[in-house]
Every structure is written in C-alpha cells, then in structure tokens.
Amino acid sequence: MTNVVQADVQGNVLCGYGRKYGHGLFVFFRIEKPRAFQQWLAAQVGSITTALPWEREPPSTLNLALSFQGLKKMGLPGQVLDSFPTAFCEGMEERADLLRDTGESEPARWDEHLRGLHGVVTSQARERAVRDERRRELEADASGAGLKVTWTQETDVPEDEREPFGFADGLSQPQIRDPAAGPWPRPGDVPVAPGEFVLGYEDEGGVVPAVPELVGVNGSYMVVRKLEQDVDGFWDFIRAEAGADEASAEWLAAKIVGRWRDGTPLVRSPLGPEGDGATRDALNDFTYGGDPDGFRCPIGAHIRRTNPRDSLDSEWRFTNRHRIIRRGMPYAANGRAEKPGLMFVCFQACIERQFEFVQSQWMGDGNFFGLGSDPDFIAGPEEGKMTIQGRPPRFVPMRRFVTTRGGEYFFVPGIAALRHLADPTQTAAPQ
Ligand code: N7H
After folding, report:
1. Cα–Cα dist 412/346, whole Å
2. How confident is the model at residue 184 (pLDDT cuts 50, 70, 90)?
3. What three-state secondary structure class fits 2?
4. Strand pairing partners for 83?
C-alpha cells in the first residue's frame, strides 16, 4: 500500500490540528472575479498548511476548499467537472430530502449567506487574537482576490472542551492505516485504509477508486454544516421526560448519546461516569460485542449508530466503509439573535458512501439496527421515537433540538491541484 504524500495533502484532513488550535474561522465566499482569485491563490498556495508534521508549531493554519459551483466558476474544462461524483456536483441543498433536511431545517429556511457558496477559507489559531487578526487580513484581502465574503463564522472550543449540550466531544476518530499520516495508534479501533479519506489511495475495498481528472489526487471531500442547538429546549425536554431528579436526567441524556457527559462510554460504565480523568484515547477504547442487546448502551444511541464498531461484524468490515473524520467545532450564541451550535465538518473520500450514508441510513432510520424507523435523537429527523433497551424498555418521543442553518459539500484539493487551479493557462477562468 502506498503511503500518503503528506506534502501534497492539506492539513487537518488526516491528522487534526488538535484542541489547542481551538480558535477557528470559516470564511465562506462566492467567486466574483475568477482571474483575480487565481492570482490570490497563486500567491497564497505556499502558505497553505499541509499534512507534513510541523517542525515548529505555527501561530495559525490556513486551508481552502471549493464547492462544485466554485470549481465551475474557475473555468475547469467540462470533462474534468464531469469526472466529479454526483453528490458533490449536486451540492448539499439538492440532497436535502435524502439528508432529511426538512421542516425547520429545509434549505428554503437556511441562512441566505450560507447558500450558493463557492468556497471556504478555514484557519485555526492557538490564540484568539491571532484568529481575529487572520479574520481582518482575509476580509481585507477579499475584494482584491475577486471574492465576495458571504459570511465569516468564528468557532471556539470552550475551556471545558464540551460542545453546547454539555458533552465531551472529539474523542473518537478513525485511525488511519498509514505509518506517517496519523492520527496515531488508538487502542480499540480497527485502522482504516487512507483511501477512505484521501483520493488516489487504496480504500477498504482493496482498490484505488477512480479520482476526478487533473485535480483529484491527494484531495478529499469536506462536508460543512452549521447545526444550531437548542440547549435549553434539549435539557427542559430531558428533565421533563426523566421526571424525577437530576441523576435521572443525566442518565437519560447519556442513554441518548451513548456516553456520559464527561465522555465515559456507557458500554463500559453503564451506571455512571468513571470520573477518573481517563485520557481521550482511553475513552475511545471500547466495543459493543459484550452488549448485543443494548442494555448497557442503547443500540440507537448517537455514538453507537454513527459508528457501530463491531456491532455489524466483528472485524468492522462493514463499519469501516462508512467512517468519517470529524473536525467540527462549537460556536457561541450571538446575543439573542442566534443560538449556539456546532460547525459540523467531516472529511471523506466518498460523500455518498460516508457522510450521506451515516446521516440518511444510520441516523435517519433505524432499519439497519433492527429498530424499525427509530431515528437518531441528536441529529436525526423529528419523527418517531428512540428506544432504550431494558427490562422493560423505555421509549422517548423524538423532538428536534438541532436545526440545519446551511452548509455545502466542498472539495479540498491537494497542493499540486491548487497550483493547477491557480494557473490561468490551465483553466478558462473568465476575468
Ligand atoms: Fe455526533 N453530541 O454532542 O451529542 N457526537 N453530534 N454527529 N458523532 C459524538 O465520540 C453531536 C453529528 C458522529 O466513533 C459525540 O468523539 C451533536 C452528525 C460520529 O464512537 C457527541 C451533533 C454526524 C461520532 C456528539 C452531532 C455525527 C460522533 C461523542 C449536532 C454524522 C463518533 C464524542 C449538533 C453525520 C462515534 C466522540 C464513535 C460522536 C454530539 C452531529 C457523527 C457528544 C450535538 C451530523 C461518527
């Protein structure tokens, strides 16, 4: 198996920047003047953060991804555009029914500035002030770069590293079967071939799948969704359902997620958090083989259905065809105007088989797990119920506390591909 060419892959795809780069920035844009954008890109490409290990930690990172409409705007030849997969070409809005983005989450209700996007520049910094400076620079550069910034989203990992509902997040990630690519060996995970996340490498099917022409190799697909969280609504509902005391509410919330709020997996410790300050790796070291009936961790709990681990087959063969690398970060409430939430980000080699499958099949429906039409309580559609296995079982009616506010499917080109896109002799970018 070929090792990943780290110098040609953008950073954060395989090996994350980590929680200490906890101040993030998403600058979403539309391309107004493709030639000017090419010039800007040509000047910036040397500053794009790659997957190479750092000799010295930079104060901030810089990455770029383009949607299908963005690639089209850059004047890539029709045959190259045609070689991209359908889900990416259609874009997230077109896929709304499949993703169950209905009701409050339907695209017609999305934030206007998060629709029709051509691309996103992302940056992560260790210091808030560095991120703020980066924001000023990028926004000031935009019009000279031929771009209209539609929205700048700041994200911040809070001190306690919890997401808005109050759960520890970012604990579980797939381990990549590549000696250099990272993330590094993690107990409890069956490593996944790099071709599941980066184009041009062997995947779990044992083949190197076809890649888009000219710009495909060493690229990855990035799904970005702004997911608003109704935190008060969630906890009011949980407390009302749980009925009795605070401990019952904690128990019910843990059953819904599959982990206690401190990250302790239920399958390992069903009666309460371990509370022993376990490392992130240790919190990820578990399987479901010893809990086939879901009495410890419900079969429809969020983490069990989004990564069933050994539940479907002991070698994780089926599971590992549907893994995603999550790089989301929380954003804070903006006064009364906006609730807090998660800028959900995931990387994969095939949007349809990975993100879309997880969202529509494993989260949107319970059929795969013998749960009828039970959806995921956290980010599934507002229909039906959640089943908590036990004697007797318990049923929780579905309510939606996570609303999609917008998003898009992006392509993260490798560095050589970015140079290609920046070269006016290679594309027919209009002025
Ligand atoms: Fe989920 N949450 O806070 O409740 N997620 N998630 N997620 N999620 C996970 O194990 C959450 C969403 C996955 O490998 C944890 O790292 C919230 C979408 C996957 O064992 C918590 C939202 C999708 C995993 C949350 C949200 C996924 C996972 C435990 C929306 C895919 C890893 C922390 C606002 C389409 C499972 C951890 C594994 C874990 C929450 C969305 C997928 C606490 C609030 C849309 C694959």
Report:
1. 11
2. low
3. coil
4. none
Look at the chain and count its residues: 431
86 to 94, 99, 224: CA distances (angstroms): 11, 15, 17
In 3D space, the residue among 293, 313, 258 whose CA is nearest the CA of residue 391 turns out to be 293
Report the pocket of ligand 1 as residue ranges, CB < 6 Å: 163, 165, 167, 169-172, 227, 229, 257, 259, 302-303, 306-307, 324, 326, 342, 344, 355, 358-359, 363, 378-379, 402
pLDDT in tens, 137-166: 999 999 999 999 999 999 999 988 899 999
How far is the centre of ligand 1, averaged over its atoms, from the C-alpha of 264 (Å)? Answer: 14
Instruction: Look up residue 65 and give its DSSP letter.
Output: E
Distance CA 33, CA 145 (A): 8
The mean-pLDDT minimum among 63-67, 103-107, 250-254, 273-277 falls in 273-277
Between 103 and 281, the more confident residue is 103
Contact 224, 88 (CB under 8 A): no
Ligand 1 centre from 303 Cα, in Å? 6
Of 306, 323, 329, 356, the one to substitute when testing ligand 1's pocket (max ligand atoms within 8 A of C-beta) is: 306
Which residues pair with residue 388 across a beta bridge? 394
Calculate how far, in angstroms, residue 108's C-alpha sits from the geometric centre of ligand 1. Answer: 25
User: Could you check whether the bond before residue 298 is cis, i.e. omega within 30 degrees of 0?
Assistant: no
* Nearest C-alpha neighbor of 156 from the set 23, 25, 61: 23
**pLDDT in the model for residue 145:** 96
| Prior bond of 212 cis (ω within 30°) | no
- What does each C-alpha distance from 153 to 99, 238, 265 come to in angstroms? 23, 30, 31
- Joined tokens for residue 243: 């009925």
**Pair of tokens at residue 332:** 């804070």
pLDDT digits (tens, 9 = 90+) for 244-262: 777 899 999 999 999 999 9
C-alpha 89/C-alpha 73 separation (Å) is: 13
Residues 6+ apart with CB under 8 A from 72: 81
> How much distance in Å is there from the Cα of 302 to the middle of ligand 1?
7
For residue range 384-424, list pLDDT tens digits in order.
999 999 999 999 999 999 999 999 999 999 999 999 999 98
